[in-house]
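Friendly challenge for the regulars: who can give me the C-alpha cells for this chain first? No prize, just bragging rights.
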Amino acid sequence: MSRYLFDNKHDSTPDRFSILETTYDPFSRRRLEATGLAPGWRCLEVGGGGGSLGDWLAERVGPAGEVTVTDLEPRWAESRPHASNLRLLRHDIVRDPLPGGDYDLVHARLVLLHLPERLAVLDRLVDALRPGGRLVLDEFDCSWMPVLAAPDESAVALFQRVQSALLAELEKAGADPVWGRRTLAAMARAGLGELTAQTYAEAWQGGGAGIDFHRVNMRQAAEGLREQGVTDEELGRFYALLKDPGFVVNSYALISCQGRRPLRT
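First reply, four minutes later:
Bragging rights claimed.
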C-alpha cells in the first residue's frame, strides 16, 4: 500500500516548508508569472503546504480574483493571516471531489511526485481548467545531485549511500523520484498544448539553509533508512557532514512544466 513518506503532521514539517519556500518560491513565482497571471484570475493551488505561494497568488489576482489552496493538513497554512480572496481547504486530491472548476490557473509543487495515481490526478487537474487555462507543475528529478566538493571520498560515498536509501524508501511509498523528467510528456498526453519547461538548481554548502533540507528529510525517514541498512552511526556522520562548509552538493533539480488547455473551437 502506498503512503506519503513525509507526513505533514510530523513536527519537522514547518522546517521542511520553510526551506522549500526560501529555496524554491522565487523560481515558482517566476514560472507562475509566465502564465500571464493577472488581476481577476481564479486559481487553484494543490498541496499548498505552508501557504506562501497561495498568499502570493491572492495578492497578484487582487480582490476581483480568488485563490483556493488545498492540502491534506492545512493547519500550517492556517497559522498565518490571509487575504479575504483566499480560502483554505482540507482536501485529498486523489479521493475528494475537486473544489470547483473553470480555473484560469492550477498549480501544484512536489505533489504528483508522491502519488501512485499521478496520471489520473493530472487528468483531473486538466479537467479543472477553463478552456485556455494554464497548468503549472513543479516537480523534482532526484536522480541528479552531484557532490561538488567534499573533505574526502568517504564523505561522497556516505552522502550517496544515505541518499540512495532515501530514494528507495520513496519508491517503496509509491513515489516516483524522477517524475520531474516525465512531467512534460505526461502533460502532453493529457491534452495540453503550448508546453514549456524550465529547470532550477543551486549549490548547497554545508551549514547553509538549503542543505538542511536533507537533515529534515532523513530525520523523518530515519526508520525506513534503518530498514534499508543505514546505521545510526552513519546517520550521525551524515548529519555532521551537512554542517561542514567543505561539503557542497547540488540541490534537487526542480523542473517546472507549464501547459495550456486548448480553447473550444
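The longest strand covers residues 129-141. The chain is about 40% helix and 25% strand. Your move, everyone else.
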